[in-house]
From TrEMBL:
Protein name as annotated: GM11432
GO biological process: adult locomotory behavior; circadian behavior; positive regulation of circadian sleep/wake cycle, sleep; regulation of synaptic transmission, dopaminergic
Bias-annotated ranges (Polar residues): 273-282, 336-349
InterPro entries: BTB_POZ_domain_cont_9 (IPR052407), Galactose-bd-like_sf (IPR008979)
Gene Ontology cellular component terms for the protein in this record: cytoplasm
Compositional bias (Basic and acidic residues): 255-270
Residue spans of biased composition, Low complexity class: 283-301, 359-377
Lineage: Eukaryota, Metazoa, Ecdysozoa, Arthropoda, Hexapoda
Name of encoding gene: Dsec\GM11432
Top-level taxonomic group: Eukaryota
Stretch list, region Disordered: 255-301, 315-395
Amino acid sequence: MWGIVVELGTFCMINHIRMLLWDRDSRAYSYYVEVSGDQQHWERVVDYSDYHCRSWQYLYFAPRPVKFIRLVGTHNNGNRVFHVVCLEAKHTAKVQRLVGHFVAPKTNVATVEMSAIVTEGVSRTRHALINGDYLQYDWDSGYTCHQLRSGEIVVRLGQPYYLGSMRLLLWDLDDRTYSFYIEISTNRKDWEMIVDRRNDSIRSWQNFLFTPRPVVYIRIVGTRNTANEIFHCVHLECPTQDKNYLKKIAVMEEEREKKEKEKKTARTDDDNIASTSGSSLASGHAESPSTSTSSSQSVLRSIHWPQQTAAVVPLTPPALSPSDTPALPAPLIPAHSSSHNYEQNQPWNLSADASPHTSPSSRNNPSPNLSRSRSQSAEWEPVPPLVELDTRETL
């Protein structure tokens, strides 16, 4: 078992955890939170393993029955120990909107009350940029600044928030203008520029809208001041609290949602048309299965298997009457004679006119002269057995 495990007195339906990380300096922690009912099956409800967090943590998730809560630290840039000072778990009806594990706030989270701090920048009052006072400022106090081309202003939020807008008040007690850019990060290593006003002349209140994303660090870098070499910021809000600007954002969101709905409707109509066309084609194919089957069978029969019009009747040799059957004489024992006469009396001995390269057809069909010579000599020559004659002529 690893991490910090808290066992509740009984099963409780909770959706909110409030936790205080040790915050006597500016160190950053990373962690994740899991809940369970039996300490066997754990469910991760918050995962900030790759994000820097500090001080009070405001965590929300879907309601569920919980008996055990486990806190697991994954990073501490001060040492290798994870420190938790306080933990609260409860169910609340005031649930923040969530995007994944991140809170998408509607109120300003760049405040001291929400654990934000200013890590870079110069001011006479600590955290003047995020203390919520944007009315009391003058030539000497009430703002945060840095030297052009050699500094920056960095604000660190208490935890990662899903943000898409911010508002900035530049020092405006005269007619000077500024140029600057803004970058954001979740670990202070990988920065992404969201606002670029380096080529513009800006003054007083400014609202910025960008693609929503998780944000922990906000870096403001001034590049020009028409009065001197100092860049001055009075107030920062994340997200913006300008009501007029929020109305414009709401109208833009409605238009965007309307367009997405129209696209979705058009896509659904296209899918319905495609499915209707597919079903009509399928019904057309299945309209007359017997006809298609019979036609395919007839095509196959006509191409591959010609129809047999008459049955094949095996041929049998004609029966011979007793009068037509020749009487076979008894086999004679040939007398001892010369080898020349014996070879002439053999049925397989060919005449002198026969060629040794006779074709198979000529061998199977002996010539009439040869047949007559055999019949004429049947009276005085011994006839070989009939079996030998049949075997010889079928070869």
